Amino acid sequence: MLGIKRQPAIRTLVGEGTTVEGSLRFRDGLRIDGEVLGDITAEPMERSVLVISEKARVTGKVSAGHVIINGSVVGPVVSHTLLELQPKARIQGDVRYAALEMHQGATLDGELHSLASEDKPALKLAASNQA
Questions:
Q1: Would 4 be classed as within a structural domain?
Q2: Which residue range(s) make up the domain with 51?
Q3: Per-residue model confidence as pLDDT tens digits over 9-31
Q4: What is the pLDDT of residues 59-98, one digit of tens each?
Q5: Distance (Å, rounded) from C-alpha 78 to C-alpha 115?
Q6: Beta partners for residue 90, in sequence order
Q7: If you ran DSSP here, which 8-state letter would residue 22 be given?
Q8: Strand runs (DSSP E) across 33-76, as ranges?
Q9: How many domains in the chain?
Q10: Residue 53, SS3?
Q11: From the centroid of its chain, how far is CA 6?
Q12: Buried residues in 42-73 as b, exposed as e (16+ CB within 10 A)
């Protein structure tokens, strides 16, 4: 099975009925079923998976490799490998992604920006009348 990358294991769970106030940093995988009031950041970014379930609510910046959202996020989202917006996903904030999969029913109130377009050099115009 060459070329197939395995997802990191989900090692941490914020359970339903739990509220976390403050920033969360995680390694490998994290699943949110409760509420987080603060930023969520994966380290290292590329080898991580974050699942925000249908019942979850996050208020803050979300940043991870593979991000799967089926709940509510109020704040910016950055996904360095793949962003999956499931049917009940609700995002209020700008989104930056490497690859995007958006299911029917997902809503986004913000701007979409591809990370690939950020890697391109800025366009420079040459002056037409140089003396």
A1: no
A2: 10-110
A3: 888 999 999 999 999 999 999 99
A4: 999 999 999 999 999 999 999 999 999 999 999 999 999 9
A5: 9
A6: 72, 107
A7: S
A8: 35-37, 40-42, 49-52, 57-59, 62-69, 72-74
A9: 1
A10: coil
A11: 19
A12: beeeebbbbbbbebbbbbbbbbbbbbbbbbbb
Torsion of CA 30, 71, 115, 126, to 10 degrees: -150
Judge whether 33 lies within some domain. yes
122 — alpha (psi -120 to 50), left (phi > 0) or beta? beta
Q: Provide the residue type at 86 as one letter.
A: Q
Domain assignment present for 1: no
Percent of the chain whose predicted confidence (pLDDT) is above 70: 85
Question: Which amino acid appears at position 45 of this protein?
Answer: M
The answer to whether the bond into 44 is cis (omega within 30° of 0) is yes
pTM of the model: 0.85
Quick check: is 94 in a domain? yes
